[in-house]
RNA sequence: GCCGGGGUGGCGAAACUGGUAGACGCAAGGGACUUAAAAUCCCUCGGUCGUUUAGACCAUGCGGGUUCGAGUCCCGCCCCCGGCACCA
């Protein structure tokens, strides 16, 4: 009899068995007690499965198995987010067509995924690059188009010169491409957008209804960036033009000494006077040459030029100069501001640089003397130098001045958002083609539903296209040229593909029936099985995938295609596993492969070690030094259950161990429920240690151990369960329950303090009265010693816990 | 700059609504078994003082405070991680 369990044999045996019996392929027609447990699907870019994947998939499967044992009908699907740039780049690099390389990678990753031993329902597997799937991504586009939520527009967009495509706002981080880190450029291009801004308020409100991490909700709130304020109009003196301005501080209008409009503002050329036109043109050019990253740097000195024109303050009727400067952004508000240099840091810097007047119109609450030549006075206070509004609190000022503007038709209350529409066009090959045809007489024509999918052509030489800013699809004549579905005349296809985030914004719907051909999904199934009950994935998608998916569901709900608005009821983010303090990545060459660990210790040990390392939402730095400890522990449990230790297995009951068992069940249950896997494992270890101290244990104690271990080490547990003579899978057996009465330990340790300092402890039966506790405490020699010559003033007693004596 | 989350032994970490700080594990040291090693089992393990014991003092990033009692609550700082950032 071998002392060490043969992980390879056991894991292969059970994986094979689960697979053969289609153990976790479930019939969704019955949704009673349903639980949809979802993890973010994987991205086959050529990398193998790394520790990060395991950290996402292992613990989430533990949670799902626990739920299954609690009697839920758990649906745990897995698939591939197979379109996208990394896959395309990988394919180009290796000279293989992305369809082929993707297929190979998926095949390899599937084998790796199976080794985790998760309950994936492989019948529901999907692949977003499969025409069977992207047909319906295109269909989704058409639905949004019908609803007026997809539109093409010429707008300044983010261009990544390295990825050779435009990017959505969400994919630009600190002026750099989210994928490759290259500085993005601004380009004026006609692109397709999804009107996510129409849902700004609902996306905000919905956050109150879902159980998501606080920080993620906060990130989405900040990203949407709702701000309430006033829109007002300045007339341009002597011209038939008005400038629209959004402000949150209209109370400072008496301190406005200039106007600044963004260099890209459409009105700029109209208002600029002839004598200033050269300067303004030069300025615009200099701004265009500035990189986006340089432009958003806040500590850069302000630049700008005077346009020669003046605007009329709608409240004071004063004329103030109109300037242009790149610190005012085109993308936010109306791209124009009025400058109140006394009370805004940026305006103050601008006015100081260009010698514009600075007026104080807000007095701080503390009436402090302010010197506006030296620094700005931002913040709250009382209105001064504002004629009839003097003395008002700034908040009242906002209301009153907005009212006056409104009565004159010069302004109104308004709400502004930071959120921009979702730019979905990509000038790349490996994605779902946008199903649109351009016709000279009919204009923009959607591809009729019955003509879907618009198949991605294969006759394209991707290598030839390297470095070109045009979409690869434009190279294919057979793809490009098409008859207009409306008039039959010659038309051209849209050559851009869709952002892969479109693919992933609805995959969780398709999982319920990935081969359904009547529609994108079977409504009956989807409305029964969704929303997703528990979603687990990285927080890096907080303002991308997680926002887009919510938006898409809301739109589909409005189109009456779904009966729910929020796709993910509960969300949990696993932490990040770093290596030497930095995120693992191929480019840094610090990716740790899980494969050797699986080889040496097995999947049960490995996934359990990942959970034991620390809190699941915190991740941590990778260090394999403790993995042996988990392996040892599993061996200990294995030997104990198989009677390979000095501890006898008999039928006698053991009061103390039974109590420990109930306590363990209680704590482990609560810990797994809240994803506190590390402490759950500690509790099981304590339970095993406790049994090792005994001379004999009974079968029930051991069976409960196997059940508790099952979600963590599913293969080993199944094997032991079978060896205990049970027919059928352990995972069809119910999770153990506990009895609070039995779980209570008989004796407890009471801490005795004097003036809050620990001076001793004693053991006593639980539930004793305060008097008994005090008397027992006073018996302790060390307490007697400390009490000598002192008077006892008060005894503080915390039942079953502590006695504290106050003495003098 | 603003918004989150953190900072506890040599290391990963525990500590429920304020109540014995360091559970559980790693590493380390000692012992048992063994011809030997591995494996296994048992013991010790925050620091200083105390020969040992008993015990005392110090200790949860730093400085204050509230409390009988603070890792936990309050005020002020420092550092690390993540997000946002000229957003009007």
If you had to describe this structure to a student in words, what would you say it looks like?
This protein is α+β, with helices and mostly antiparallel strands and 808 residues long. The chain has 27 helices and 34 strands. The strands form ten sheets. Strands 8, 9, 10, 11, 12, 13 and 16 form a seven-stranded mixed beta sheet that branches. A four-stranded parallel beta sheet has the order 2-1-24-25, with helices on one face. It has a four-stranded antiparallel beta sheet with strand order 4-3-7-17. The protein is globular, with a radius of gyration of 34 Å. It binds one RNA strand of 88 nucleotides through helix 7, strand 9, strand 13, helix 11 and strand 28.
Helix content: 25-40%
Distance between the termini: 67 Å
Taking pLDDT < 50 over at least 5 consecutive residues as the criterion, the unreliable ranges are: none
Q: For the report, how would you describe the main beta sheet?
A: 7 strands, mixed
Helix/strand/pairing category? alpha+beta
Q: What do the pLDDT scores average to?
A: 92
Rg for CA atoms: 34 Å
Strand content: 15-25%
Count the beta strands.
Answer: 34
Rough outline: globular
Continuous helix count = 27
